[in-house]
């Protein structure tokens, strides 16, 4: 049986949590930051969890995580 390749783009974007779910960064924090409030930018820094319905797709992209 050949080895499975990890999707490198997904490997950079998702991390496995201790409970087995996947953590991801939130969007909208790259540019056009002057019009966003400090509170909004601060809350966007916190990681978010991938939705349960998307987890099987992430597992296929990351077979060894």
Q: Can you give a write-up of this model?
A:
- With 65 residues, the protein is α+β, with helices and mostly antiparallel strands.
- It is built from three helices and three strands.
- Strands 1-2-3 form a three-stranded antiparallel beta sheet.
- The longest helix is centred in the middle third of the chain and has 7 residues, at 38-44.
- It is elongated.
- The two termini are 19 Å apart.
- The mean pLDDT is 96.
TL;DR of this structure?
The chain is 31% helix and 12% strand. The chain is α+β, with helices and mostly antiparallel strands. The longest helix is centred in the middle third of the chain and has 7 residues, at 38-44.
Secondary structure topology:
Blueprint: H1 8-13, E1 14-16, E2 22-24, H2 38-44, E3 48-49, H3 55-61
Antiparallel strand pairs: 1-2, 2-3
> What's the pLDDT, averaged over the residues?
96
How many strand elements? 3
Helix content: 25-40%
Low-confidence stretches: none
Report strand order across the widest sheet. Answer: 1-2-3
Largest sheet geometry: 3 strands, antiparallel
Q: Give the CA-based shape.
A: elongated
Percentage of β-strand residues:
5-15%
Q: How many helical stretches?
A: 3
Query: Topology as H/E string?
Result: HEEHEH
| Class derived from helix and strand content | alpha+beta
Gap between N and C termini: 19 Å
Q: Please state the CA-atom Rg, rounded to the nearest Å.
A: 15 Å
């Amino acid at each position: 049986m050949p080895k499975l390749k990890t999707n490198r783009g997904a490997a950079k974007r998702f991390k496995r949590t201790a409970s087995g779910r996947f953590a991801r960064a939130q969007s909208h924090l790259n540019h056009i930051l002057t019009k966003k409030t400090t509170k909004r930018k601060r809350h966007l820094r916190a990681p978010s969890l991938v939705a349960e319905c998307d987890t099987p797709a992430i597992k296929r992209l990351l077979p060894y995580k």
